[in-house]
Specification:
The protein is mainly alpha-helical and 282 residues long. It contains 13 helices and 2 strands. The chain has a two-stranded antiparallel sheet with strand order 1-2. Helix 6 (114-127) packs parallel to helix 10, helix 8 crosses helix 13 and helix 9 runs antiparallel to helix 12 (233-258). It starts with a helix and ends with a helix.
Length: 282
């Protein structure tokens, strides 16, 4: 058994190392380009270091574009996460008429090609004279709901309603049960759902371009416009690094919350104690 365990641990370490290299190695040239003023072919390393790319990126409005991307992604996460959580809870515990059909409709945006849908919706939004920013946010929220619904559905399948029932038995109000029992128990799943919805808004290009009509310049749009030119590799590298850096920082920030686990299904006699601890003082 020891050789088998050693083999499994070795494969595990090798697999993790390979996964890290798979994501890190492509970023190395991009990071070098951020601080490279000149890197002519066939030089292996930059021949002249500097920060010209950083200064040019700031001049081209990378800060404002990044701010718009952050705002757009935050709005998408704030709206899509509670909608997905409510839909998942209703589908898991409630009696939703035609639940299978409702679930298919909620997950449909993943299966339908986004470009075709956006082209059709753009015509409708133009005829209804919906502002571009409102249209972009609405479509991105709809695109993010399948991810938030799926994550929360998985979480609710393992969720124990006994804690909420015990809290109500102990005299907790519905608001106290919701915010002091229910939300803390599903907080890891809510965090992951919000992160995925944030990524939908942060990385979008097609919806912002078509529906926004080029008036909403986000970081992905600015990056796409910059890559069409030549001789600006360092500027492209700066924008690309920023596109990757923000989600990575956010993922690192939510990791402690994401790793929390729900209380295990224990004996009924333990639930009142756990519920009382969750409710606390009212």
């Amino acid at each position: 058994m020891r050789p088998l365990r050693w083999l499994r641990s070795t494969f595990g370490v090798v697999g993790r190392l390979g996964l890290v290299l798979w994501f890190v190695v492509p970023l190395v040239p991009m990071l070098l380009w951020v601080f490279a003023n000149r890197w002519p072919y066939p030089s292996v390393l930059p021949t002249e270091l500097g920060t010209d790319g950083l200064h040019q990126a700031v001049t081209e409005g990378v800060a404002s574009a990044m701010g718009r991307s952050l705002l757009l992604a935050a709005v998408v996460a704030l709206v899509a996460t509670p909608i997905g959580a409510a839909a998942a809870r209703a589908l898991t515990f409630g009696r939703v008429p035609a639940g299978r059909l409702v679930e298919v409709i909620l997950l449909a945006p993943i299966a339908i090609p986004s470009f075709a849908v956006v082209m059709g919706l753009n015509i409708v939004l133009l005829r209804w004279r919906v502002p571009g920013l409102v249209g972009v946010m609405t479509i991105l929220v709809v695109a993010a709901i399948p991810y938030t619904t799926y994550v929360m559905r998985v979480a609710y399948l393992g969720h124990d309603l006994g804690y909420e029932e015990e809290a109500r038995t102990l005299g907790a109000s519905p608001e106290a049960v919701r915010w002091r029992v229910h939300v803390p128990l599903v907080l890891p799943a809510l965090t992951v759902s919000a992160f995925l919805a944030f990524l939908v808004g942060w990385s979008d290009y097609i919806v912002t371009l078509l529906v926004g009509g080029g008036q909403i310049v986000t970081l992905p749009m600015l990056l796409g416009a910059t890559t069409t030119g030549t001789g600006n590799e360092s500027v492209v590298a700066v924008m690309a690094v920023l596109c990757v850096l923000c989600p990575l920082l956010l993922f690192g920030a939510i990791t402690p919350i994401r790793r929390r686990s729900q209380p295990t299904h224990s004996a009924e006699i333990d639930r009142p104690v756990a519920a009382a601890e969750l409710v606390g003082s009212r």
